[in-house]
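Q: I'm a student working through a structural biology exercise. My instructor gave each of us a protein and asked us to get a predicted structure, then write a short paragraph describing it. Mine is Metallopeptidase, catalytic domain. I'm not confident about reading structure output yet, so if you can add a plain explanation after the tokens, that would really help. Here is the sequence I was given:
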Amino acid sequence: MDSEISNLLHNNTTSHGRTDVTIKHSLDHGRLDVIMNSIKDAVYNFKHTFNTSDHDRKIDVYIFNNLNDYQGYLKNMGRAIDNGVVSYTAMNNFDANNHADVGGNGADVYVYLNSEGNVNQDTLEREIGHAMQLTNLGLSYILPTAVREGMASYIAGLENGNHINDHKDINTLSKIKSKNLKADEILHDGYYGQNCYSEIEQ
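A: Happy to help. First, here is the predicted structure for Metallopeptidase, catalytic domain. I'll explain a few features afterward.
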């Protein structure tokens, strides 16, 4: 576990109101600037979309150098993830010794660099959306999967306060409508459940 973290040579912390985001990475400044802008946009969009109050929040973003480091770290942390899961967010808390525990006003986000050395910005913004849910909405983890994923995907689809995925959303809603699902079938479906077959359908 320490080996994957030791490869992340730099820590950069930015403050967005009272939300502090620390990025653990080994990126050059050009790629880091892109990531920092995506994080700033996602935090801003979440606060303004859901009108959350500005309390002390702490989000740590781990940007692993490759898929193997990402999977190895999460496995050693006891996080059970499927092979197709390319990002992960978990609630945490920090005690006097800066040890993480479940609950509280902090969240960890885990993503990794692709073969070209980049992070998928849509994925990153969606995970920041999840982190903002966990740190601002209390028991948000008990919400139905479709609601959690829908909120996070909505944040990832905002640009300058405007939603840019309308065409994709319209096509998705059309597919869902054709399945003639009842509301409880959608709300009680799992992440990759019987009724919704993709992240965008969630």
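A: Here are two points you could use in your paragraph. Residues 99-103, 190-202 have pLDDT under 50 and may be disordered. The longest strand covers residues 100-112. It's a good idea to check both against the output above yourself.
Q: Great, thank you!
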